[in-house]
Q: What sequence folds into this?
């Protein structure tokens, strides 16, 4: 099943069911008016939404209309929980290596995760509005899941069943603000402004064989200013799967229905030390910071600048038939 | 005006208007069913709630009933944003001093703030359920405000007008998990489990002279296992006022209506280096960690243990007439 949220002037938007090929959609106010409302009562609501989805795909839903990704909010325009892991330890290792630091051994066994802000996500086709482009504006292409209620203490072996939806993320980051914030010891805040999510969230069954062991086994495609930038396999080099990330998040708290758990920046080693760019025949990267790290390690200093006003990023994923699964995140950095 | 949220089996509870003396309440489903719904449309809704409040206080509301604090959820049982500052730099200085570290000069000009989790707050009279009491369970008595929509880049001189409600917090902390998490560099996550808020949230005008310069000028009362533990003046030694904290939070993001901004642990220097306990004639402390820090600085090691299963904390605030303003947070740590 594929779901999206249509902009309708309200804070939580209007839940719609989207056809598998992303061409058609149906409003479902009689079932659930918002995605959060559906998630709040998922066991009851999901089968009803699935019935609409099946009818829509069969081409005979009487009230279907053309699906416009540009009219979408993030599937949850605001959420009660957004916790972003950093499961691709290659990404972490790269960032550290560039400044000459080793990563602690524990990073391979204990997930990194930060508590994100979730009160005001931006839409998948909305501009990234910021007061300054001198803060080291970067994108981070990631995969994320949405859970139902996860009781405190849920172990990884049981956490996978709580994954109800999968989507993509642009976890916008302000690299210039990160060192100062992390030095203060309280983690990210100003350096992690509003994130954007793919127009469409899909149930894991929709991903068929590509969803295995609580990982999404497809390349995550990033384009930067209309040029291919990254196509790493999201299923590779993911040190912690989504079940492990959920268990980590739920160690000392319940997670409420609609909790979003992110993978962190998708990053592949490609059998080399830290991977390589698409120009060099590699799978590239999912953020500018990694390219800069490679440049720093190789050349002593970075040459690729961070995003300036006018720069744009596209993030999406295709199945083996080249079919777009989640719709596309397409955003331009602009002055607020 | 005083507002609260009654437990009703739903995730967001039922908004009620509470009389000034906390004795009576009224359901207001025809105005707003939840506090979040009221905050989403505050400009329109607040005057209607105020009219009910006035009628309730005059003693002639036809549908009033006895207000039971024990039936309350936290005013927002779940929220879209919970950002907790650390505005009483004395608290920070103490924690650092105990381990022989100075605080950076910037801590006096740039607020510390962490992004909290907000999907599953506990009620003001609910137990603090945790799988273990070996994680250094501590309370932190704080003041918090709830804002309406705060546009990105709002400056401190304009941020005060966005404060719509004030309440108290128990920001439960797991001290034993903090060093490991902070060493990883991503801030708090597992070490900050669900927080609890006072039964009642009040509009700033309700605090009359006690609300000035975006600070709450009254002692914050903590009792630990039925003995007075802290009574520091929340208006003193608050290096950053709530307007400054809001401006800090909104530097690179919009804050959505219903955002909760916390003060951090209230802590007074009392003209001494780091304050003193109530037993010693001082105003005491708002968390166990500070007492342990004082003990460490004085005796070389802490003697007061953190909370064990069965230990209880009470947090509240009274006006100069001894009238309870926010109701009382009363919680016992128990095994999950």
A:
């Amino acid at each position: 099943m594929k779901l999206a949220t249509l902009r309708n002037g309200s804070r939580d938007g209007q839940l719609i069911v989207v056809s598998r090929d992303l061409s058609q959609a149906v409003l479902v106010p009689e079932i659930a008016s918002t995605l959060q409302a559906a998630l709040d009562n998922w066991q009851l609501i999901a089968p009803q939404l699935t019935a609409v989805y099946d009818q829509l795909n069969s081409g005979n839903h009487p009230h279907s209309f053309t699906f416009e990704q540009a009219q979408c909010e993030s599937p949850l325009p605001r959420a009660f929980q957004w916790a972003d892991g950093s499961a691709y330890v290659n990404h972490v290792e790269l960032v550290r290596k560039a400044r000459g630091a080793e990563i602690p051994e524990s990073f391979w066994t204990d997930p990194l995760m930060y508590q994100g802000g979730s009160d005001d996500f931006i839409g998948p086709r909305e501009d990234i509005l910021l007061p300054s482009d001198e803060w080291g504006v970067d994108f981070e292409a990631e995969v994320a899941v949405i859970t139902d209620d996860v009781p405190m203490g849920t172990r990884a072996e049981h956490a996978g069943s709580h994954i109800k939806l999968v989507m993509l993320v642009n976890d916008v980051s302000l690299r210039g603000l990160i060192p100062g914030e992390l030095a203060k010891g309280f983690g990210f805040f100003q350096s992690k402004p509003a994130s954007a999510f793919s127009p469409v969230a899909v149930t894991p069954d929709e991903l068929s064989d590509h969803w295995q062991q609580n990982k999404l086994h497809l390349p995550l495609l990033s384009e930067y200013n209309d040029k291919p930038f990254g196509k790493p396999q999201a299923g590779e080099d993911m040190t912690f799967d989504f079940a492990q990330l959920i268990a980590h998040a739920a160690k000392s708290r319940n997670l409420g229905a609609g909790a979003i758990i992110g993978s962190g920046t998708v990053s592949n080693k490609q059998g080399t030390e830290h991977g390589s760019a698409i120009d060099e025949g590699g799978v590239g990267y999912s953020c500018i910071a990694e390219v800069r790290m490679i440049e720093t390690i190789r050349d002593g200093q970075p040459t690729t600048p961070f995003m300036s006003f006018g720069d744009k990023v596209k993030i999406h994923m295709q199945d083996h038939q080249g079919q777009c699964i989640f719709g596309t995140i397409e955003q331009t950095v602009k002055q607020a």
User: Anything to note?
Assistant: The CA atoms of residues 94 and 293 of chain B lie 6 Å apart. Residues 42-57 of chain B form the longest helix (16 residues). The two ends of chain B are 36 Å apart (CA to CA).
